[in-house]
Structures are given as C-alpha cells and as structure tokens.
From TrEMBL:
Lineage start: Eukaryota, Metazoa, Ecdysozoa, Arthropoda, Hexapoda
Species of the source: Ceratitis capitata
Protein known as: Calcium-transporting ATPase
Purpose of the protein: Catalyzes the hydrolysis of ATP coupled with the transport of calcium.
Matches recorded under CDD domains: P-type_ATPase_Ca_PMCA-like (cd02081)
A GO BP entry: regulation of cytosolic calcium ion concentration
C-alpha cells in the first residue's frame, strides 16, 4: 500500500464527499457530519490531529494540494494586448479622425478626368496625400500607445493586488505549534484558529467554538449574524467574516472547491456571458444592470448551497443592496466632472461653429462670389474643414485630464508605500489632501500599542511597582494567575525576542499580552496553566465585544460545579461585583460606598496618569453547600442568561496598563493643526485616560474651550425626545468636540456621518477615520477616507478601508495628507497649464477660420500641441514631489472652487499675452519679419515661413508657460525645485528637441518650412516673454479680483448622479446608460478614471510624423516607466 510520510496515501474521504458535506447548513449539517462519524472521525480520515494539526512536512502538504487542490482562486485572465488595441479604437473622436483621414487620403488620389480643374504643381500634387496619412498614422500610434499604457497599468495593479493578498496571514496549528502562514498555503486537513475579525480563507468544520457568530452575507445574502457551534451549525465558509467569538476548525475545502470558490467560478462564466450579451443589446436596456449585481461579492444563494430556515438563520425580507454602501465620488472627481462637462460643451460648440463658418465662407466665396459650379475636387476642401473642426474639438476638450489624474495618483501610491501607506483605492489618495477632520483611535495609532501593567490594586494594597507572588495571599494569587491565563484568547502570547536582550514580542491582543506579562512578572508560567486547562475543557466563553466591554470564561471545577472568570473595563466590572478580597485576603462585602471610594482613590488617579484600568473577577457555581460569594446549583446553569450569570462577582484585582504615546505623534498632530485639520480622538477607554492621552498628544491644549464627552452624554445631546438623531443637534456638538470616550462603533459612525452631512462650515467637511476592529467597518466605509491598521487591524476593517497603515502610526496619516495635497496641486497645475493652451488654441483656430478662412494652426500641428499639453505635460506636472510647505495652508474642503482666482488670473493673463503675440504675428508678422504672407493661401499651396513662425512661437510660449504652471499659489520663484524632478526637465528638453526637428525637417508632413537662426531667436524670445509676463501677472493682487473668476464652485453632489464614476465594473462603452452627445468623451474618460483605465486618447499623436518616429515613441515609453 502506497504511503506518504508514513501514513496511507489514500484518504478516508474523497474531494467529492467533502464538497457535498459542505453544501449543508444548520441541523442538517450536524446530521450529515454525524453520518461521517463526527468531526473527530473526519480528522482521522484526513490524517490530522485536532490538537497537534498536520505534521507540516513538505511531502504531506504537496500531496494534499494535489489531491484536494490549492487555496488559490485563479484570477480572470488579463485582457490581451490586441483586445486593448481594439478597445482603444472604439473612441468616438478617434473614429471621426480615422474616417476623415481616410476620406482625405482617398480624395488626394482622386483626379476626375472630366473636370476642368486647375492642375496643381507637381510638387504639391505629389504631397497631397501626406496630411491624410499623417493623421491616420497618428491615430494608429495613439491606439498602440494607449493599449501599451493600459497593459502596463493593469500589470501594475495586479501586482498591487497580489501584495495586498500576500500580506493576508492566518493562524494554523502544525506540528503542535501555532504558526502564521499565508492563506495561499492552507491545505485541507489544516487545523485553523479563528477569532473575532477574521476573514475566513477556506471552508471548514468546527472542532470547538466560543460564542462564535459569523457574517455570511457575502455568500448567502443573509444580513443577520449566524450563530455557529459544534452542535448548532458547524460549517464555516470561506469569504465570511467572524463578527464575534473564537474557535478552531478543520479545513475541508480550499480554492475553487470551497463554497466561495464555486461561486467565483460560476461568476466568472456569468460575467463573460453578460459581457457578450451587453455588446448585443441596445443601450438603455433595463437588463444592463445584471453584471453589476453579479460582480457584487454578495450573490444570492446558489443551488449548491442548501440552507434551512431555523432559529440560526434568519432570512430577512430583502437583503440590503451593496450599492447602498458605496461612497460618493471623491472630492476631486466630483469637481472635475462638473468642470469637464462645462469645458466639453464649450469645446464642442466652438468646434461645430468653426466647421460651419469655414464651410459657409467657402461656399459663398466659391459658388456666390466666383459663381463656380460644384466639382468633385471641392470635397477635399470640405474634408479639410471637417478635420480642422475635429482637431479644434481634440484641443478644446482636455481628454488628457484623466491621464494626469491617474498618473499622479499611481505615482503617489507607489511612493506612499514607502511611507507605510498601502493605498487600496486610488481616489483615497487625493481625497486625503482635502481632509479637514481626522477621527482617530487611541490605542496603537496615537499610542505604541505595547502595553505593560505598571500599577496594581490587590487586597486593598496599591502597588506602583510590580508586586511579587509572595506579596499576595496565596489563594488570591492563584485565582489571579489562573483567571488571567485562562480568560484570555489562547492566540495571545508573549514570545521571547529574536535576539538576546530584545524586548519580548507580544502576539495577539495587546491588553491580554500586558496581563500575561503581569502573570510572568509574578513568577508564574501562564502556559503551564493553559496546558492543564485546554480550550476543549471550556464550558462557555463570553467573548469580548463593544457592548459587553468584558470577557468571561467558564471552566469546570475539580470538585464539581463551575468557575466563571471575567475581566473588563474597571468601572463596568466593579458594578457587577458584590465581594472583594481585603487585607490579608479576607473576603469582604463590596458595598456601594467602597465601590465609589475605589473608583475615586484608585481608578481615577490611574486613568489621569493615562493608564487603562482592567478589573479581574470570578464567581463559583457549586452543587453542594455554597459559601457567601458562591451560588448553589442543582444542574448546569443557563449560560445564555448572561445578566444573571455575570453578577455578584468577587473582585480579585484592578491593574493599570500603560500604553505610551508614540514619540512622533505630538509633532504630527501639531502639523495637522497647522494645516487646518482638526484631530479628534474616538476611543472606548475611560474618559480620564482619554483626556490624559489627548493632552499628551496635543489634541487638547490648556485653556482651550473644547468638549470631552462620553458616549452616553454624546447620545443624550444629539438625540431628540423620541431618541432620533437630529443633524441640528449634532451641529451644536461636533465643532467643539475633541475627545469621545467610552464610545461604541455606532457612536463613531454617527459622529463621522454627522460631520460629513453637516453644512455648518462653508466648504463642507472631508473626514478621515482610523479603525482596527470589525465593528469599525461602517465608520470606515462612511468616511471619505478610511484608514485600517495593518498590524492590529482585523481583516474586516482592512476590507472596509481605503488605505492600510502598515505601521499603525498616526504620523503616516500626515504623510498621506501631504501626498494627497500634492496630487490635488498636481492636477491643478496641469489644469492651469492646459486651460491656457485650450483657450489660445481654440480662439486662434476660431478667429483664424473667420478672418483668413483657414486655421493658422494646421490639424497635425494642433495634434502635436495636444500631445505636449496632454501626455507629456501630465507626465511632467503629475510627478512633482511633495514639500513640507503643503502643510502650511488650509485644506480646500468639499466645495472650494477647483480653479482658484489666482489660477484663473494666470490662465487669462497668459492667454491674453499669447493671443496678442499670435494675432500680431498673423496680421503684421509678415511685414515686421519681412517674409511672405501665409494668409489667403489656396488649398494646395505649400507651407509658409509665416505660419511656421506662428506655430513655433505658440509651442515656445506653451513650453515656457509649462514652467510657470509649476506654481499655482502666486509664488514668484517658478524654477524652485525644478531640478529635483528629472522627469519634468527630461520631458521639457525632449519636447524642445522634437520641436526643432519638426520645424526644420517636418516640411509637408507638418505644414512647416525651415526657419533661419534669427527667426528661431524671435520665437524663443516670445516664449521667454511668458516668464517675464508671469511675474507681472503675479504682481496683480488676487483679492481685488471678482469671485466669479473662480471656476468649479458649488456642491459637487449635483453631479453625483450624472456620471456614476467607478460604480460600474465595466467601462461606459458597455454600460446601459447612453450619455448625451456633449458628454460622450468625458463620460468615457472620467468613468475609466475610477477603474484606473488610462484613457489618453490622443497620447503621442504627433510622435507619429516626426522624422524619428520610433526614437520619440521609445523615449516617451521610457519616461512613463520612470515612476
């Protein structure tokens, strides 16, 4: 018989049998499990031990993977490069350009024999096809560069996702030792420890559980928490969240064989079908919402999941829609949406007007004034006018904005990882820059989360140094050490440091680790007590939660009966105590007066020193004669009657646990306050402890008139007589509130929602929240930015968060603020630069069309300008590093205009200068520079130096204005920090060299004629003039300008329903919402922004037709890789 690692290779149960077993729930599941012989027999069949787990040898693990599968659900294969190319070709404006270019190309070869058209010169005839081909090749390169960017971006984000998943560890028992392994390494037969806050990585059957409740809504749609137990419902499923309690399970299904895996597999097939179906359907079909529901991680129960409606599973009338939990658009996205729609309308209108004016003028001149008849060759003129109009639209609509946003965010996200910020949602990065309020936890975020007992009160003796076991009466000492050792999660341990002399490593709950350290300090080994009283001997466990604020464990007594150990927050525990050990361990009645004296003389002074106070108590249930502090029982008590069980306790001790403030936190909070961000502490701790820590951190300062409230008082102030929360009452509380103590997760959610919804402050509040517990999930989701703790945080909190603090440190939040503001400023810089170019290019094209029946800037030239201001400028301006100066200004808030008066002053001022120069050159430039005029040229005429100088001057002014655009707050020194950004100056120099090549060697392809050195110097002189002019603009006082000059003002919520950014899992091409014509480009661009699809549809357009096409493209790609 074949053996593996000393045991039979054939398992006692097959993969199919395990899958069938896991399909059952509740009592039916218990019955099916008993048919197998129970959980112990199942473990035997899987060759695993309920106490020692698997041996953990490589051979055994590999064999289990081969037999039962690995714990990995294969991701949907990424889109191929050709698929991305095809998607890029779907862009509406690109299609118009493709058609126009093909028509232009075809007409250039069309010479009808029967017409008396004037014969063009041979040179002109030879080059007639160049413009059409130039645009066509431009489109091809745009498509390939867009596809390349999409491809590289997708790989980058898959890598980020893999990193997030790779950091997900889970506790299993292997070789009789508890170890943390990656969830991908879990195999069938592993014994896994599950606890409050875990996201279960595999299916399993409970071996033992304590007060276990699981949220199965992600699989079954049931909103109520499901009670789990060996005798109630032993099946626990992957993808579900442990909301209360703890336990131990044997893993029975992993990966695609788990219930979540089965649904994912079905889901993948369903999504493919939906995508295919959507492409066939007409836009606006009501069924188009189906894939969005399917992509939701909360599918309805499938046929493979059998569920019975017993007391354990309460099926709600209707499960809450996941969409209800989705956040609104980020602040910047909402403002950009509004701005983009306005620009889109303006650009579309001017483009249409340009084409109409050009066509009307051509028709009047040709058919009315010159009285000519229609000839087929005139179609060339009409196509040329159409191309000019489409090009005006290309330049007018800043479609490079989504690229600038995504580049800036992606660059920042990569850099933020080094600052201990793991960004899960890109938009959280820029939202953090607008934050006006931070609601922070205390433990672990503001403090070190390395807890130690520094004071104790035992037998009416207060010790400010650790006592020894000899200082405590023996029977009290034994009860204290046993009570702490047993009544703590067995996953909490103190491990020796890695090197001799290192501090011990605290694993698990840090408060429990402090108590276990106290036991060790008394000279007792807590592990020996745990070895004697193993978890399977527990009668009942009352796990800690935010309502109880205590934990209890019931164990059998040696002489019969039961002993309950309990620990928790002192003031809550003492109310449940009726007895206490006095001097020399004598039992005394614990009267109300004694309780108040103990709180006043012991607990409050400890709390005022910033200590967390914990009380340990016990109660005996005996079958025989009961002592005064015991209770007589005839049978097993009703453990579900918690109120009567947890009463008349005997207090053993009160300890004060120190959790020092992180040394860097006071400085970080000062930076926040200087930056206009209000920091509030929301904690479950005693109000005196919270006040002490808040003062040490700098949240509270002497003589400040701020509120410090407990949860109960907070609720009393914000609720009306019917108990309903009223916003106007909340608005009286939150502006002055700095510390909320003894708060529940509901209080935290209420506070966050109240601040976000409040309209008290002019610019509306943007709120960031930190959280680590499972119950913090709602507040983390509601907040504009949710920070989860990477070390202490539960899986549920991390799932609900936007950013994970990998070091659990508040100072990392300040770095996130700095990066966020930098992103916001980078987008503003890009906007300031691009809108200047937009205004100038559109006005020049429009007035040129009206005045000289032609645009001074040709189609291909405008595409090159579009490349400068879209791709290259966005890459250059989006990669500026943040500076500490960013923290010296106030946050923008939710409703402040995106384009400030200072920015608008710069945009209009530079546009006036550039328009003056360009129109001066257009109308008198030929006379001043003594060159042939380019005005009134025929269709077939070649390029002139006149119009080449106009094009070159415009590009020079644009390039030098890019340096001006680096500053948006009215700073005079625009070159400060220029050489700290190699991407910026590399792109700038590259653009300048490309422009020289285009002017000197572009010829017909770019409608340029080589310039002399004198003419080049004039162009550069006008370009440098923008820097000088910029200094004059800066001198104009901004405050005297009318507020109407700021743009993007108002409440962005007005546009929330206009475009559902990121709420579709598919691009808007496939969505069922048909946008209005004026919004089509922007709905595509901005919808893709949320799903991080780089959409720069005109990227590298002119790259195509320079002499060194491939060299330019390679240089751009290498620049893109720099970040």
């Amino acid at each position: 018989m074949a053996t593996i690692d000393g045991r039979p290779a054939q398992y006692g149960i097959s993969l199919k049998q395990l899958r069938e077993l896991m399909e059952h729930r509740g009592r039916e599941g218990v019955a099916k499990l008993s048919e197998v012989g129970g959980v112990a027999k199942l473990c035997d069949k899987l060759y695993t031990s309920t106490n020692d787990g698997l041996r953990g040898t490589r051979t055994d693990i590999e064999h289990r993977r081969e037999t039962f599968g690995s714990n990995v659900i294969p991701p949907k294969p990424p889109k191929t490069f050709l698929t991305l190319v095809w998607e890029a070709l779907q862009d509406v404006t690109l299609i118009i350009l493709e058609v126009a270019a093909l028509v232009s190309l075809g007409l250039s070869f069309y010479n009808p024999a029967d017409e008396d058209a004037p014969v063009l010169q041979e040179e002109e005839d030879h080059h007639g096809w160049i413009e059409g081909l130039a645009i066509l090749i431009s489109v091809i390169v745009v498509v390939f560069v867009t596809a390349f960017n999409d491809y590289s971006k997708e790989r980058q984000f898959r890598g980020l996702q893999n990193r997030i998943e790779g950091e997900h560890k889970f506790s299993v028992i292997r070789g009789a030792e508890v170890c943390q392994i990656s969830v991908g390494d879990i195999v069938v037969g592993d014994i896994a420890q599950i606890k409050y806050g875990d996201l279960l990585p595999a299916d399993g059957i409970l071996i033992q559980s304590n007060d276990l409740k699981v949220d199965e809504s992600s699989l079954t749609g049931e909103s109520d928490h499901v009670k789990k137990g060996v005798d109630v419902d032993p099946m626990v499923l992957s993808g579900t969240h442990v909301m209360e309690g703890s336990g131990k399970m044997v893993v029975t299904a992993v990966g695609v064989n788990s219930q979540a895996g089965i649904i994912f597999t079905l889901l993948g097939a369903a999504v493919d079908e939906q995508e295919a179906e959507l492409k066939k359907r007409k836009k606006g079909s009501d069924d188009g919402r189906a894939p969005e529901q399917n992509m939701n991680m909360s599918p309805p129960p499938t046929d493979g999941i059998k569920s019975e409606s017993d007391g354990n599973h309460v099926q709600p009338a209707s499960s809450p829609a996941e969409a209800g939990h989705k956040k609104e658009k980020s602040v910047l996205q909402a403002k950009l949406t509004k701005l983009a729609i306005q620009i889109g309308y303006a650009g579309s209108t001017i483009a249409v007007l340009t084409v109409i004016i050009l066509v009307i003028q051509f028709c009047i001149k040709t058919f009315v004034i010159e009285e000519k008849h229609w000839k087929n060759t005139y179609a060339n003129n009409l196509v040329k006018h159409l191309i000019i109009g489409v090009t005006v639209l290309v330049v007018a609509v800043p479609e490079g904005l989504p690229l600038a946003v995504t580049l800036s965010l992606a660059y920042s996200v990569k850099k933020m990882m080094k600052d201990n910020n793991l960004v899960r949602h890109l938009d959280a990065c820029e939202t953090m820059g607008n934050a006006t309020a931070i609601c922070s936890d205390k433990t672990g975020t503001l403090t070190t989360n390395r807890m130690t007992v520094v004071q104790s009160y035992i037998c009416e003796k207060l010790c400010k140094v650790l006592p020894t076991l000899n200082d405590i009466p023996q029977h009290v000492g034994n009860l204290i050490t046993m009570g702490i050792s047993v009544n703590s999660a067995y996953t909490s341990n103190i491990m020796p440091g890695q090197n001799p002399g290192d501090l011990p490593i605290q694993v698990g709950n840090k408060t429990e680790c402090a108590l276990l350290g106290f036991v060790q300090g008394l000279g007792v080994k807590y592990q020996s007590i745990r070895d004697e009283i193993t978890e399977d001997k527990f009668t009942r466990v009352f796990t800690f939660n935010s309502v109880r604020k205590s934990m209890g464990t019931v164990i059998p007594r040696k002489n019969g009966g039961y002993r309950l150990f309990s620990k928790g927050a002192s003031e809550i525990m003492l109310k449940k105590c009726s007895f206490i050990y006095g001097h020399d361990g004598v039992l005394e009645k614990f009267t109300r007066d004694m309780q108040e004296r103990l709180i006043r003389e012991v607990i409050e002074p400890m709390a005022c020193d910033g200590l967390r106070t914990i009380s340990v108590a016990y109660r005996d249930f005996v079958p025989g004669k009961a002592a005064v502090n015991e209770v007589h029982i005839d049978g097993e008590p009703n453990w579900d009657d918690e109120e009567n069980i947890m009463t008349n306790l005997t207090c053993l001790c009160v300890v004060g646990i120190e959790d020092p403030v992180r040394p860097e936190v006071p400085d970080a909070i000062r930076k926040c306050q200087r930056a206009g961000i209000t920091v509030r502490m929301v904690t479950g701790d005693n109000i005196n402890t919270a006040r002490s820590i808040a003062s040490k951190c700098g949240i509270l300062r002497p003589n400040d008139d701020f509120l410090i409230l407990e949860g109960k008082e907070f609720n009393r102030r914000i609720r009306d007589s019917n108990g309903d929360i009223q916003q106007h009452l909340l608005d009286k509380v939150w502006p002055r509130l700095r510390v909320l103590a003894r708060s529940s997760p509901t209080d935290k959610y209420t506070l966050v929602k109240g601040i976000i919804d409040s309209k008290v402050s002019e610019n509306r509040e943007v709120v960031a929240v930190t959280g680590d517990g499972t119950n913090d999930g709602p507040a983390l989701k509601k907040a504009d930015v949710g920070f989860a703790m990477g070390i202490a945080g539960t899986d549920v909190a991390k799932e609900a968060s936007d950013i994970i603090l990998t070091d659990d440190n508040f100072s990392s939040i300040v770095k996130a603020v700095m990066w966020g503001r930098n992103v916001y400023d980078s987008i503003a810089k890009f906007l300031q630069f691009q809108l200047t170019v937009n205004v100038v290019a559109v006005i020049v094209a429009f007035i040129g069309a009206c005045a000289v029946q032609d645009s001074p800037l040709k189609a291909v030239q405008m595409l090159w300008v579009n490349l400068i201001m879209d791709t290259l400028a966005s890459l250059a301006l989006a990669t500026e590093l943040p500076t500490p100066d960013l923290l010296l200004r106030k946050p923008y808030g939710r409703t402040k205009p995106l384009i400030s008066r200072t920015m608008m002053k710069n945009i209009l001022g530079q546009a006036l200068y550039q328009l003056f120069i360009i129109f001066g050159l257009l109308f008198v430039g030929d006379w001043i520079l003594d060159i042939e005029s380019g005005r009134g040229q025929d269709l077939g005429a070649g390029p002139t130096q006149h119009f080449t100088i106009i094009f070159n001057t415009f590009v020079m002014m644009t390039l030098f204005n890019e340096i001006n655009a680096r500053k948006i707050h009215g700073q005079r020194n625009v070159v400060e920090g220029l050489f700290t950004n190699p991407i910026f100056y590399t792109i700038w120099i590259f653009t300048m060299i490309s422009q020289v090549v285009i002017i000197q060697y572009g010829k017909m392809a770019f409608s340029t004629k080589a310039l002399s050195l004198d003419q080049w110097l004039w162009c550069i002189f006008f370009g440098i003039g923008t820097l000088v002019w910029g200094q004059l603009i800066t001198s104009v006082p901004t405050r005297k300008l009318p507020k109407i000059l700021s743009w993007g003002r108002g409440h962005p919520e007005e546009y929330t329903d206009a475009m559902h950014l990121g709420e579709e899992r598919f691009d808007s091409i496939d969505s069922d919402k048909k946008p209005r014509a004026g919004q089509i480009l922007w709905i595509r661009g901005l919808t893709r922004l949320q799903t991080q699809k780089l959409i720069n549809n005109y990227m590298a357009v002119l790259i195509t037709w320079s002499v060194s096409t491939h060299r330019i493209l390679n240089c751009y790609c290498s620049s893109f890789r720099l970040f």
